[in-house]
Amino acid sequence: MASKSKFQLFLFGIGMVLASLYVYKKRKIFKKRKQLKSVEDYENHAREKLPRFTYALISHGFGDIATVEENMAAFQRYSLRKRLFNDFPDLSITMQNNHVDLPIGIGPSTYKSWLWRDGDLCVSRAAGFLNICEIVPMLSDHSLEQIIEANASADVLKWFQIFICGDGYHETLVRRAESAGYQGIVVASGGYGYEDDFQESDWKLAITSIVDKLTALRLGNFNQMNPATAFHKHKIRPTVWKDVARLKSLTNLPIILMDIVTPEEAETAIEYGAQGIIVSNEGGKTVDSLQGTLEILPEIIAAVGNKLEVYVSGGVRSGCDVMKALALGAKACFVGRPVLYGLCYQGEEGVVQVFTLLKNELAKCMTSTGCTSIADIGSSCVVRSASYDDEDV
């Protein structure tokens, strides 16, 4: 009887060891997921893995999503011009006099912790590892101090995004950002639509309320308030030009204006002392049927010349897209959704994978077009397809 018990105990022990090895193996596989082949592959993974309403929140656009689709379609209207026998390129640039290793930055996206635990911190560490610029959103789950402290190096380029608060709370955040070591303030338009995400009459509130209850979503820069309470208490509103003038008097940090979509706005930004602008239509999330950002870019570059740095955001899904934007005059590109897709795939490592993919694609495009540095990239590197111009007529 005793020998039978020992045998059963032995079998139980073997079973536990095998189970432990299985779990260990699964965890190793999980920790070392292979890099996928395209940003589209990362998006497909997010679509399959995430709850439907969560995927909708990070990928959705306004109305018929015509602006979202136009942002991406605009890049397909340009082709690269090939040149042979070229050396491997240097991809580094300066942004507002700060050195970064890539002309590709991380745009301000929310909902990161719905995709991966401590998502804000994961993305911050990835930006530090890659030595690229990150725009930290005001509506982040973690505080601006926690996010910048996630980096081991103090030299990582971080800009802080703000919306204008009717009670002036954004001014407190600007001072906190400057004290924490941020090197730029990005002013969002506060466009009509962001605040609508949290209006009770909007269908998005139903989604947001459900997820709020499931995840206890709180905003790190708003004393752990939920988004609806923060918007209501601090009266977040659209930005007007006098707000830009006020911000210039508050801080010595560079002011970069987001959501610029016309040459006239770009020229006004110069008048108000902005050091940079981001050509963006908010990822197509607030207004439908807008021009793609790449289509607008040449007009804006022609209007402002070298008077400030011009960046572009919206529709970038490959290193080839980055190449085209740089060729048309952009200083750098910012990406949003691809970062979230990478985060969903493998946290910090997933974000690094996405940017490694973009980096390698950009390097290949530069080599193929005879560019050994970012400064070599110009309008001669691309050609617009005549078929698209014929369609426009």
List the topology elements.
Elements: H1 2-31, H2 39-49, H3 52-59, H4 66-75, E1 78-80, E2 93-95, E3 98-100, E4 104-106, H5 112-115, H6 119-130, E5 134-136, H7 144-149, E6 158-162, E7 164-165, H8 169-180, E8 185-187, H9 203-215, H10 227-234, E9 236-237, H11 241-250, E10 255-260, H12 263-271, E11 276-279, H13 293-304, E12 309-313, H14 319-327, E13 332-335, H15 337-368, E14 382-384, H16 386-392
Helix pairs in contact: 2-15, 6-15, 12-13, 14-15
Which tags fit this structure?
393 residues; alpha/beta; eight-stranded parallel β-sheet; 16 helices; 14 strands; 49% helix
Please give a structural write-up.
- The protein has 393 residues and is an alpha/beta fold.
- It is built from 16 helices and 14 strands.
- The strands form four sheets. Strands 4-13-12-11-10-8-6-5 form an eight-stranded parallel beta sheet.
- The longest helix is centred in the C-terminal third of the chain and has 32 residues, at 337-368.
- The termini are far apart.
- Mean pLDDT is 86; it is low at 15-30 and 191-203.
